[in-house]
Amino acid sequence: MIGSVFLETYKQTWKQMVYWGGGLAAMALMVVLMVPLFDMQDIKDLLQTFPPIILAMVGIGKELEIFATNEGFVAMGFFGKSALIFAVYPVVMGMRITANEEDAGTMDLLLSLPVQRARVIVEKFLAYSVSIVGVVLLIYLGMQIGVSIAGIDLDVARLAEVTFYLIPMMVFIMAVTVLIAVIVRRRSVALGIVTAFVIASYMLQAIGAVAEGTVAEPIGSISFLTYYNAGDILTQGFIWPHIAGFLVVSALLLLASLYQYERRDIAV
Amino acid sequence: MASATVIEISSLSKTYGSGSQQTAALRNLNLSVNQGEIFGYLGPNGAGKTTTIRMLLDLIRPSSGSASIFGMDVRDHSVEIHKRVGFLPGELSLWEGRTGQQIIHYVASVRGDTKGITKQADELAKRLQLDTSKRVRDLSSGNKRKLGLVLAMMHSPDLLILDEPTNGLDPLVQQTFHEMMDEFRDKGKTVFLSSHILSEVQAICDRAGILRDGDLKAVESIEKLMNVEFHWVDVQFRDVVPEGLARQLQQASAISHVDVNGSRVKMRLVGDFDPLLRMLGDGYVKDLRVEEPSLEEIFLAYYSDGTEVR
């Protein structure tokens, strides 16, 4: 029956979604509650004293003005420094699509049923994508609760844009993970490669940001994190070409995964 | 009576690794299994049994050759084939955090008939005395195996592919399993059963194939295999081995490999025990031990020099 793998995957995952979403929501709540404790002008002055490499590593580019606002503080304090944390959940979920099931041996039983390999991957991918949406919704909820408790003036719509922008990026990371797991087969090796990919992307983004205006600037454009920049989203709102880019590349990676998985042996 | 061919395997080979690391897990396998028979696929661990089964289920792809089930190629028509096949893996892994009932429901929903299949599953679980309300992680290995059998049989498949099905099952449940297999065959359905336990294959199978190091050495009816059956007999006398007994044993056609050591004599006996017991009549037998031959020994006995033992 169409959707049965999707439903079962979701049933097996919703608790993790709540735990991860709850944890990240608590972090977002704490950052929002900290807003009234700081003078944003002091923050701006402080930031100006930091070397560009440090600012780049927490996701702050040249637009320091925006970070001297309440929204900017939250964006810097939560979305900027948490880029690597947001990558963990989609990597964990991506590994579950094929690698964990093969490693545990449950894939043999599943694929002995009348179901195509492609259907298994697609339904699981969709179920985990829904769980990513759930995690992001919980983060937004945590932020909203923080705003209510702190009673601060915050452009909630802009923060919502920064928050929901996470979804295409996290789906992209999951798609990368699935493809690597499908190619490499061995779970531990796949996990190592994905981790290296995320960390390398983080470093490339930082280098690109620091090297702005130099010949090394394009290096940053290789990193997917360049296309999730809290400062840009706060100033420009949704950057649709970037969102479309994440989703289109994710779809292509998924197609490549289906192609490769159809052709290889199921590991034990 | 067996009729149509259910499983047809032609020149099937599987090689793992590449270059100098290459290992042949299965070489040029040709085999047919007919409708309504229980076929035993015998061989020691690592002989290639699971590799064959995984290729039949399209979990791994052959290096060369082909296989078909119900006349359909196992690669091109895997979904259609799997609708009519029930499978029990040798190393059964299930979703640890889910209950038996939840897994039954999941598998039934993938098969597309939750209501009918679940009802059948309940009956099978009752017969195997399996509590499906427990989480998999709380089940013993025997109960996990029972759940695996329920999952394999609950949709009334036309073909059962079972990899070491009785591993971990207690003798009473093994008996129930044997009855279930007989009933399955009586309905004209087919079973492809891998095992390294000769007695199990003898008890329920009609024919058996013997696999060794990736080569199918022979396919024989169980009746023929039974004929070659022999035992290792170890007789311990209270005193020394009676005079002349060794010579008498060596002359007996059903006895070979006679080894006399002090008060003890070991031998290989083919067929009935009565002639041996009569020969032992003069001595005081302190202890007598009988050991079943290993599958390897049966195999060697049957095929040594290309001739049968008896």
Give me the secondary-structure category of chain A: mainly alpha
Detail the poorly predicted runs of chain B. Answer: 305-310
Q: What is the count of DSSP helices of chain B, taking H or I runs of 4+ residues?
A: 11
* Secondary structural class of chain B: alpha/beta
Q: How would you sum up the major sheet of chain B?
A: 6 strands, mixed
The structural domain count of chain B equals 2
Average per-residue pLDDT of chain A, rounded, comes to 89
Number of strands of chain A: 0
Largest interface: A-B, 24 and 30 residues
Which CATH class of the largest domain in chain B is shown? Alpha Beta
CATH topology of the largest domain in chain B: Rossmann fold
Name the average pLDDT of chain B.
89
Strand fraction of chain B equals 25-35%
H/E element order of chain B: EEEHEEHEHHHEHEHEEHEHEEHEH
Q: Percent of residues of chain B in helical segments?
A: 25-40%
Taking the sheet with the most strands of chain A, its summary is: none
Task: Give the topology, please.
The complex is a heterodimer of chains A (268) and B (310).
Chain A: H1 4-34, H2 40-48, H3 52-57, H4 64-67, H5 70-80, H6 83-97, H7 99-104, H8 106-111, H9 117-150, H10 156-164, H11 166-184, H12 187-210, H13 219-222, H14 230-236, H15 240-263
Chain B: E1 5-16, E2 23-34, E3 38-42, H1 49-56, E4 64-69, E5 72-73, H2 78-83, E6 85-88, H3 100-111, H4 114-127, H5 141-153, E7 159-163, H6 171-186, E8 190-195, H7 198-204, E9 207-212, E10 215-221, H8 222-227, E11 230-237, H9 245-251, E12 255-261, E13 264-270, H10 274-279, E14 285-291, H11 295-303
